[in-house]
Amino acid sequence: MTISSGNSFLSGLSSTASSAAAAKTATTGSKTLDQSAFLKLMTTQMQTQDPFNPVDNTQMVAQMAQFSSTTGIAEMNTSLKAIAGDIAASRVGDAAGWIGKSALVKGDSATELSNGSFAGKITLAKDANEVNISLVDGSGNVVYNGSASNVAAGDVPFSFDGKDANGNQIAGPLKISVNAKDASGQIDATSSAWTTIIGVQSPASGTTKLVTPSGVIAPADALQLS
User: Fold this and answer.
1) Which of 131, 132, 170, 223 could in theory staple to 179 by disulfide, Cβ–Cβ 3.0 to 4.6 A?
2) Residue 88 — φ and ψ, nearest 5°?
3) Residue 95 region, left (φ>0) first, then alpha (ψ -120 to 50), else beta?
4) What is the pLDDT of residues 71-102, one digit of tens each?
5) pLDDT digits (tens, 9 = 90+) for 138-177
6) Which sign, positive or negative, has the C-alpha torsion 21, 23, 25, 31?
């Protein structure tokens, strides 16, 4: 029995691995065919063609046309990506124009505007003999009451300066409570309130959102803009 000494076996493995890596490196190249490589390939094809059986001109023209089409598509994709980037930047700029404006949003919660006031509107499904609008704070206290008689169906605006009896500012949000009646009893009414747009969210992939004290809303949710 012969016992080998040294690292000849390991060295052999290392040598084999190195040779394999070198072979892999040698055979690894670009997987794409650019215009220069295509022209070189076509020139080589012309130089090495059988003079008694040359390459058909129709085939060569077809190859050139196909390559030209592929190159054009690649360039178009690059242009489209650039255009998409410009549109995304423009979208952010357009959305930023909403900041500082007030949006009328459907709901039963009102937040204070830049001047501290609260405003909104209710929409009656039909004519009402009596309409009462109340604003209630977080503690359940009624801080505003408004009433009207013989109100036609449609929109009925309301506003509150946001001050209590002592002239102190009332913090929102305030809950909008509506009680509308006609001769037969209660009638349907929906409410909406003005809120200030304090920011925008406009991701590259996704829809633009408006940031308000009432929460994040979609531009389509804004019934009016002021």
Assistant:
1) 132
2) -60, -45
3) alpha
4) 667 777 776 766 655 555 455 556 667 788 89
5) 899 999 999 999 999 999 999 999 998 888 999 989 999 9
6) negative
**Which residue from 139, 126, 218 is spatially nearest to 175, judged by alpha carbons?**
139
Contact between 102 and 118 under an 8 Å Cβ cutoff? The reply is no
Phi and psi at 175, nearest 5°, equal -85, 135
Q: Where are the chain's structural domains? A: 107-193
Residue matched to tokens 């404006």: 101
What are the start-end ranges of the E strands in the chain?
102-106, 109-110, 118-124, 128-136, 142-151, 154-160, 174-182, 185-186, 189-196, 199-201, 209-212, 215-217, 222-225
Q: If 0-12 CB within 10 Å is exposed, 13-18 middle and 19+ buried, where does residue 166 land?
A: exposed
- Three-state SS for 130? strand
How many other C-beta atoms can be found within 10 angstroms of the C-beta atom of residue 66?
Answer: 11
Q: What is the pTM of this model?
A: 0.57
Contacts of 145 (CB under 8 A, 6+ apart): 132, 133, 134
Closest C-alpha to 176, from 150, 149, 144, 221: 144
Residue pair 105/173 in contact by the 8 Å Cβ criterion: no
* Residue 168: DSSP 8-state: P
Using DSSP's 3-state secondary structure scheme, residue 178 falls into strand
Look up the CATH number of domain 107-193: 2.60.40.4070
Output the CA–CA distances (angstroms, integers) from residue 186 to 12, 133, 183, in the order listed.
Answer: 95, 14, 9
